[in-house]
Design brief:
This protein has 748 residues and is of the alpha/beta class. The chain contains 26 helices and 32 strands. It binds NADP nicotinamide-adenine-dinucleotide phosphate. Residues 13-18, 38-40, 43, 73-76, 78, 82, 99-101, 125-126, 129, 133-134, 235 line the site of NADP nicotinamide-adenine-dinucleotide phosphate.
Length: 748
């Protein structure tokens, strides 16, 4: 019980909404007295018998006498008469609020009947309900974790709004404020229109049903779609009448959409049909993500609300990994992120349909996918890693309706800056809070030299604004700092530029863009540290099996190396020479890794990796291999902990500014498991030994969590790993794959 917020609260109309409001207030002690005014004696008796209110009367003026708050919960068509009826009993300073589903008509009625109380009017609408009505259905917790929209007018006293907000909050609701007209429009589109369609569809079919009882053959989809046609007809009658303007507007908008759908069916226009449905799919996934307050990934990789909520629960999970075990069988790890991004970009700009398999359904690559959908590209999927991109050609992108949102993906933003510099339309690129702090000028500068009109904020951070219609000129770019993203952005802009664009890098960086351009039939020349291409060519669609990510494979390479008796096959792993440092380092430590069946996938080299357990020895890691294995060091550190002798790493200061200070966080974890180590500014010394059980703080760093899951294979006690949620964003399905291969991992 809390201290009462009010002395007397009166509810007029003691049905589901009013009864639940009264019951919630009584149960929580939010008012000293709760009184009901309702028409029928039966309702009043029931309300008293159920203990929902303290007093009840059919005289509305009497009911509201001396009340601090009056809550109207009668049908919206009865609001005007009800306001007239309460008028004689209202005290000065009363706050009048309501729960009606339409707001404009209630405000109009109040202006007409109670002009002197207009500053005390706080219109509201709880977004909660049941298919049952009447006081019998009242529930003191109906509003818990539901939204309530308040629509104060410009005359409403803010103090009154504040008090009603506090009351709903105390009832467990989340309170939003909105303009009444906006409320009626939004609700017409998202609630009133779907109800109208459900009523109409069921009625239309029921009227056809004289010869065959069609409902006998209807499946679950029909039941789901028409569930809301079971709602109370009287209430919906009122809503359609009282909000008729907004409902008609929504209906007209829908009719236009339906006509387009019809036309696509008439013409057998597959592309248009797919465009409509894939847009709807992704919009619904986005809606589910919002309503579950979860990340984009979880929403798009699950297909219904129940699996969504399971996914959301697991977001905060920890792992407990039991000691021992060996890795065996075949593990197909998640697709390579860099290649997943580029498969969408190049597929969209190609001519023809690109079929992609093994696409990484992580948040970052999904941000790229959504951006191209927003620019009119039809993309089917992703479904179990399969995506079909209907390419529009180099000049077929359409202006997006609003800015492109890149989430947390720096790769998407930087590469798109290059590609979009040369389009005919203006575009704004935005991202989440963390992306909004990252520097973009390194990319913008060379693009401006090529003729692009790009602006960033005063700090050189997003939002990035690009003006369209600029003609680009090829250039010879000498990169001051080695960066695969800058190189890629310049080369992508070069596709549209006049003449030759070439980039020279001071040190080797990942070359996925060049390789994949070649895979899509675009010729890129390489001469030492310089690569160049001629603008004005064409990309041709191709089928592409995204290689399994070598960084994700690294955990399994290490796990199978350290766990005795292991024999594991990792099929179709990308072995781009700019990424294979981890294999070289593990081999130097004595790992038994064989590279089998080497082949090409869309310009990228791939192979099957077979790894067997081996006796590892400590080494001094050659510095030239450091940049080629930068993301894999957490896993390599676990290998070092299991090796005989000491392993020394220098030249890896970059590890300190990754998702966490990876050197320190790994060192703390190793110490927690009893492994001796010494941290340097730019590296670490690790003395191999017996790994003990213990607790690891991963600090939300996915690679650290996955590395220690493998360490448990050689531990003498359970390893508990905290803060593992982010694993889902970089390596969806890691826990299941690890379990399948032999790691005894349990999500807590
Ligand atoms: P309900 O359970 O049917 O209750 C409505 C109450 O209003 C009844 O108790 C009835 O009182 C009274 N009433 C009916 N016609 C009246 C009239 N002509 N004059 C005076 N009183 C009358 O309906 P509800 O679901 O609580 O809905 C109440 C309000 O909440 C409506 O404005 C509705 O739009 C809004 N709302 C409903 C939902 C929902 O899902 N149900 C959700 C959000 C908002 P007696 O029993 O004494 O006759």
């Amino acid at each position: 019980m809390t201290a009462p917020l009010f002395d007397k609260v009166t509810v007029i109309g003691l049905g589901l909404i009013g009864g639940s409001f009264a019951a919630g207030i009584k149960q929580r002690g939010l008012a000293s007295k709760v009184v009901a005014g309702s028409r029928s004696a039966r309702t009043l008796e029931k309300g008293l018998a159920l203990g929902v209110v303290d007093e009840a009367t059919s005289d509305f003026a009497d009911a509201v006498r001396n009340a601090d708050v009056v809550f109207l919960s009668v049908p919206v068509s009865a609001m005007a008469a009800t306001l007239e009826a309460i008028k004689p009993g209202l005290k000065k300073g009363v706050i009048i609020t309501d729960g009606g589903s339409v707001k404009g008509s209630v405000i109009d009625a109040a202006k007409a009947s109670l002009p002197e109380f207009i500053s005390r009017l706080v219109p509201g609408h709880p977004i909660a309900g049941k298919e049952k009505s009447g006081v019998e259905a009242a529930d003191a917790n109906l509003y818990v974790q539901h939204r309530v929209i308040l629509t104060p007018t410009n005359k409403t006293d803010p103090a009154a709004t504040q008090k009603i907000r506090a009351l709903w909050t105390a009832l467990g609701a989340e309170v939003l404020e909105m303009d009444a007209q906006e409320h009626d429009r939004v609700l017409a589109e998202t609630s009133h229109l779907p109800h109208l369609l459900a009523f109409s569809l069921v009625d239309t079919l029921a009227r056809q049903g004289d010869s065959v009882d069609i409902f006998r053959y209807a499946a679950g989809g029909f039941r789901d779609f028409t569930r809301i046609a079971s709602s109370e007809p009287g209430m919906w009658h009122d809503i359609f009448k009282e909000n008729s303007d907004a409902v008609l507007q929504a209906l007209d908008m829908f009719s236009d959409g339906l006509a387009q759908f019809r036309e696509a069916v008439v013409k057998g226009d597959s592309e248009k049909l797919l465009a409509i449905m894939t847009r709807a799919n992704s919009a619904r996934a986005h809606f589910l993500a919002l309503s579950a307050r979860s990340s984009f990934t979880r929403a798009t990789t699950t297909t219904d609300e129940s699996s969504m909520s399971k996914a959301v629960q697991s977001a905060s999970a920890q792992w407990q990994v039991m000691p021992g075990g060996k890795l065996s069988g075949r593990v197909r790890v998640a697709g390579d992120k860099s290649i997943s991004h580029r498969s969408i970009m190049l597929g969209a700009l190609a001519e023809g349909v690109t079929e992609i398999e093994g696409f990484l359904e992580g948040e970052d690559a999904l941000a790229t996918l959504q951006a191209f959908r927003d620019m009119g590209v039809v993309i089917e999927g992703p479904s179990a890693g399969k995506v079909r991109v209907h390419g529009v050609g180099l000049h077929g992108l359409k202006p997006p309706a609003r800015g492109l949102y890149m989430g947390n993906s720096g790769t998407s933003m930087r590469l798109l800056m290059g590609l979009l510099s040369a389009q005919a339309f203006d575009v704004e690129l935005t991202g989440d809070e963390s992306l909004t702090r990252r520097p973009m000028e390194r990319v913008a500068k060379p693009l401006r030299e090529m003729g692009a009109a790009i602006s960033t904020t005063g700090n050189g951070t997003p939002p990035v604004n690009i003006r369209g219609g600029k003609s680009m000129k090829g250039m010879q770019y000498q990169m001051p700092v080695a960066s695969a993203q800058v190189k890629s952005a310049v080369l992508l802009a070069g596709l549209y530029a006049e003449g030759i664009t070439s980039v020279t890098e001071p040190a080797p960086t990942r070359d996925h863009t060049e390789r994949m351009l070649t895979g899509f039939g675009y010729s890129v020349a390489r001469d030492g540290a310089t690569c160049s291409l001629q603008g004005g060519g064409k990309l041709m669609a191709c089928n592409l099996e995204v290689p399994a990510d070598i960084s994700s494979s690294a955990f399994f390479l290490v796990g199978a190396s350290i766990a005795q008796g292991s024999d594991l096959l990792l099929p179709h792993v990308g072995i781009n020479p700019t990424r294979t440092g981890v294999i070289d380092i593990l081999k130097l430590m004595g790992a038994d890794i064989s590279i089998e069946n080497e082949r090409d996938a869309g310009g990228e080299p791939v192979a099957d990796l077979r790894v067997k357990s081996a006796k590892l020895k400590g080494i001094v890691i050659p510095e030239h291999l450091v940049p080629l294995a930068i993301d894999e060091f957490p896993a390599i550190f676990v290998a070092a902990a299991c090796a005989e002798g000491e392993t020394i790493l220098h030249g890896a200061e970059e590890l300190r500014v990754k998702e966490s200070d990876r050197i320190q966080v790994m060192a703390d974890g190793l110490t927690a498991l009893g492994i001796d180590n010494e941290v340097y500014d730019d590296g670490i010394r690790i003395q191999g030994g017996q790994i003990h059980g213990g607790e690891i703080q991963s600090h939300g760093d996915h690679r650290i969590a996955m590395s220690f899951a493998m360490a448990a294979l050689r531990a003498d006690g359970p390893v508990v790993i905290h803060d593992t949620a982010n694993v889902a964003t970089s390596f969806p399905g890691f826990a299941e794959l690890a379990r399948g291969a032999g790691v005894q991992l349990e999500s807590l």
